[in-house]
């Protein structure tokens, strides 16, 4: 459970209607009544952001299982988001059989998904991102502290911050989605964050180049190879296919960065190709292993391998509970790992973040969880057309 998010919802409640303890209630009844109380008293849907992927108890889908630890934090905890903009939760009705009626409109349908922690698998993430335009025009506010008390521009119920349009590449859309576009309490995340993100991929390339360099001389220098594998790479490993891995990884990275690489062609880092040509031209010389060692040391001493962003990697680890998803409309998002293809992204009136819902028929849905969807977190989806499509739905 996210204690911070729960307190935020509770603090919006009016003191005269604060929850009364009743020890005769079962845990299920307590959680249902708590969710009802927080929604009714806070006049917001903040508590829905606490919905976890793997509840332990059999509860209605819209009731968070507060006995489950919320390890990934919540997207709704950030005051900078206002996805539903001016749509107020005026049609919230608690129905029989522990159902709740809300109002909102559908934004998109989920087309594909993958584990967010796999963002370091560049070949796979490149294939995944092919459904996103090479360049996206995103409207967003200026970078600012994401949680500043008393600043109405950044309150979900306050005056929206002015937005301006910017072009973002697939790579930028990816890293901003991975960190929810919040980094070190700044929103939107500063552009330097993107450099740190690329640094992770470049460090991986440096490591693969170093391994491939020793592959070139492994046959004549078994002792050196063994020492390098165990001492410099952390453990002994089969590096027979490391050059192939380097080519696949580097080629995929060039494509995700928008470079023109013909289909079927595999490219390598220029420095590595230069080293390969040197080794080929000097194959009979006995100092080749020493040159490989120099090449490796040069890569290991690079700033990319040493300094680039432990912070961003930790952000990726922080989101290991979540899945990346792409909608049929070409949007990239981050949601609960329980989401499935054909689940729907909705803007619910009174919610500061989008939610993923699963249709079950007859206007009823199951709540899968909150979501970050890049490009609609500031009410961009709330238009005159979408307002006309607002309808009542029932969560079961």
Task: For the structure shown, list the relevant keywords.
396 residues, 12 helices, two-stranded antiparallel sheet, alpha+beta, single chain
How would you sum up this structure, described in words?
It is a single chain. By secondary structure, the chain is α+β, with helices and mostly antiparallel strands. It has helices at 3-11, 27-42, 122-128, 170-178, 192-215, 222-231, 242-256, 270-281, 288-300, 303-307, 310-318, 384-388; strands at 93-95, 99-115, 135-140, 144-145, 164-169, 186-187, 322-327, 332-336, 344-348, 355-361, 364-373, 391-395. The protein is elongated, with a radius of gyration of 25 Å. Strand 7 and strand 8 (332-336) form a beta hairpin. Strands 1, 2, 7, 8, 9, 10, 11 and 12 form an 8-stranded mixed beta sheet that branches. A two-stranded antiparallel sheet has the order 3-5. The chain is built from 12 helices and 12 strands.
Count of helical regions: 12
What's the end-to-end separation, in Å?
A: 21 Å
Q: Which sequence of SSEs, written as H and E, runs from N to C? A: HHEEHEEEHEHHHHHHHEEEEEHE
User: Shape, please?
Assistant: elongated
Number of strands: 12
Average pLDDT reading: 82
Structural class: alpha+beta
Low-pLDDT runs of 5+ residues are: 148-158, 231-237
Q: Helical residue percent? A: 25-40%
* Proportion of residues in β-strands: 15-25%
How large is the radius of gyration? 25 Å
Biggest sheet: strands, sense, closure?
8 strands, mixed
């Amino acid at each position: 459970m996210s204690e911070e998010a729960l307190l935020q919802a509770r603090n919006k409640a009016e003191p005269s209607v604060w929850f009364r303890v009743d020890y005769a209630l079962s845990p299920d009844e307590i959680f249902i009544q708590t969710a009802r109380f927080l929604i009714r008293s806070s006049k917001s849907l903040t508590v829905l952001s606490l919905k976890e992927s793997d509840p332990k108890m059999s509860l209605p889908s819209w009731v968070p299982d507060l006995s489950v630890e919320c390890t990934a934090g919540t997207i709704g905890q950030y005051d900078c988001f206002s996805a539903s903009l001016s749509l107020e939760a005026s049609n919230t009705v608690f129905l029989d059989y522990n159902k709740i009626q809300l109002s909102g409109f559908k934004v998109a349908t989920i087309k594909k998904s993958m584990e967010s922690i796999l963002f370091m698998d560049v070949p796979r993430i490149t294939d995944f991102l092919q459904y996103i335009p090479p360049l996206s025009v995103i409207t967003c506010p200026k970078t600012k502290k994401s949680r500043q008390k008393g600043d109405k521009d950044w309150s979900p119920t306050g005056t929206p911050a002015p937005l301006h349009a910017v072009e973002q590449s697939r790579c930028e859309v990816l890293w901003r989605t991975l960190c929810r576009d919040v980094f070190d309490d700044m929103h939107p995340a500063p552009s330097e964050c993107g450099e740190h993100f690329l640094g992770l991929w470049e460090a991986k390339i440096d490591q693969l180049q170093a391994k491939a360099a020793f592959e070139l001389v492994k046959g004549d220098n078994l002792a050196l190879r063994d020492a390098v594998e165990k001492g410099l790479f952390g453990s002994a490993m089969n590096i027979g296919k490391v050059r192939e891995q380097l080519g696949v990884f580097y080629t995929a990275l060039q494509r995700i960065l928008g470079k023109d690489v013909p289909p079927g062609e595999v490219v390598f880092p220029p420095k590595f190709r230069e080293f390969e040509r040197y080794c080929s031209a000097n194959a009979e010389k006995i100092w080749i292993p020493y040159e490989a060692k120099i090449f490796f040391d040069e890569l290991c001493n690079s700033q990319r391998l040493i300094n680039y962003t432990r912070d961003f990697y930790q952000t990726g680890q922080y989101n290991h509970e979540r899945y990346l998803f792409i909608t049929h409309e070409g949007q990239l998002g981050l949601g609960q790992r329980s989401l499935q293809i054909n689940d729907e992204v909705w803007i619910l009136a009174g919610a500061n973040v989008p939610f993923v819902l699963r249709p079950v028929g007859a206007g009823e849905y199951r709540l899968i969880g909150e979501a970050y969807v890049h490009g609609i977190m500031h009410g961009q989806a709330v238009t005159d057309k979408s307002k006309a499509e607002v309808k009542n739905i029932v969560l079961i």
